[in-house]
Amino acid sequence: MRTERNLTRRLDRVFARLDREPERPAHIDVPRMSRHRVVLFTATLAFYLAIVWAVVITSWLVRLDWQVMFFRPYQQWPQIHAFLDYYVVLGQRGPTAVMVAAWLGWRSWRQHTLRPLLTLATSLLLLNITVGAAKYGMGRLGPHYATVIGSNEMMRGGDIFPSGHTANAVVTWGILAYLASTPRARRWLSAVSAVTSLGVGMTTVYLGTHWLSDVLLGWAAGLLILLALPWFEPLIARTETALFDLRDRWRARRTRPVAEPAVPVTPVVLKPRGAPAGQPSPAREPVASTRASRGLAHLAPVPHTTRSERSPVTPVGSRRPPHADRLPRGTSQPARPLTGG
Question: How many Å apart are CA 61 and CA 153, to the nearest integer?
């Protein structure tokens, strides 16, 4: 219960922060699918298909893959091996997704919108679907597991083509440039993400975990996802609106007063002690309150006494003057003589 209460309070604070500016900031523009972007998307898709076809037919690109593998760059320059072992982490999905999500979460907090996080989630979902399907669909083995020299190693149950590290580096770091607020920031972040993804791809070739053609196809796969993101902007906007509507309904349901159901009161009939089980108990008379009974204490019945037994009203030794013609109590008064008129 305490954990759920703390989680509810944190969600309330987050949504309260977002409620300070419910509308999208005016200075942040949403990329649209322009003609220039459509041309770049088409050219990148053609390059993607060309790489796949060149590997399938075992062209000069496959021979180049084998030549680079036999060159063994990690043996030619062993002094940078330790550094590149850490540098290649910039292409792993878990660490990079956490770092970029933390940055975009802070931006969502400052800009009072869920669009950065939803855009990152959409790009990663597209990356997992497209690159994962291509990996398992073509089933190419990596250099360390190659069986026949000079072959393309396709349909051998591998998952190396295209390079997941390279595609993930392009998408994860490129999303920062895609969500940049100003054109200058977009240019700088585009250059940084391009250098980072290029370095990650060449590092996998240096370590011998990928063919050179794997890296080329990984660059194309990641760039296709970034170029296609404007098509998903309406879906992202609808999802954000739906989440805020769900939040409002949840809050309204929480703050709505709940009427407690009326509990019927059943009178309890008490039976006198020792009464038979089947005999109904007589109705009890209402008893007055204690205060009322105390107020009527002077009306309580007392034993009746005659007037002669009561204490005299006038105490002994009365101060009233005696009357000569008044006889003591209990003696009969003599009859007065009748006089004629």
Answer: 13
- Other Cβ atoms less than 10 A from the Cβ of 243: the count is 13
Q: Evaluate whether 159 touches 136 at the Cβ level (below 8 Å).
A: yes
Contacts of 48 by beta carbon, 8 Å cutoff, 6+ apart: 217, 220, 221, 224
Contact 333, 327 (CB under 8 A): yes
Say which DSSP state 139 is in.
-
Of all residues in the chain, what percent are helix, strand and coil, respectively (each to 5)? 60, 0, 40
- Tell me the C-alpha distance between 287 and 161, whole Å: 94
The pair of three-digit structure tokens given for residue 195, joined into one six-digit string:
């250098």
3-state secondary structure of 33: coil
Question: What's the CA dihedral at 52, 53, 54, 58 to 10 degrees?
Answer: 100
Q: Is 282 helix (H, G, I), strand (E, B) or coil?
A: coil
* Tens-level pLDDT at each residue, the chain (341 residues): 566 677 777 766 665 655 554 445 555 677 888 899 999 999 999 999 999 999 999 999 999 999 999 999 999 999 999 999 999 999 988 899 999 999 999 888 887 788 999 999 999 999 999 999 999 999 999 998 888 999 999 999 888 999 999 999 999 999 999 998 888 888 999 999 999 999 999 999 999 999 999 999 999 999 999 999 999 999 999 998 898 888 888 888 877 765 566 666 566 555 555 555 555 555 555 544 444 444 444 444 555 555 445 555 545 554 555 555 555 555 555 555 554 44
With a threshold of 0.70, does the pTM exceed it?
no
Q: What angle do CA 123, 127, 132 make, to 5 degrees?
A: 160
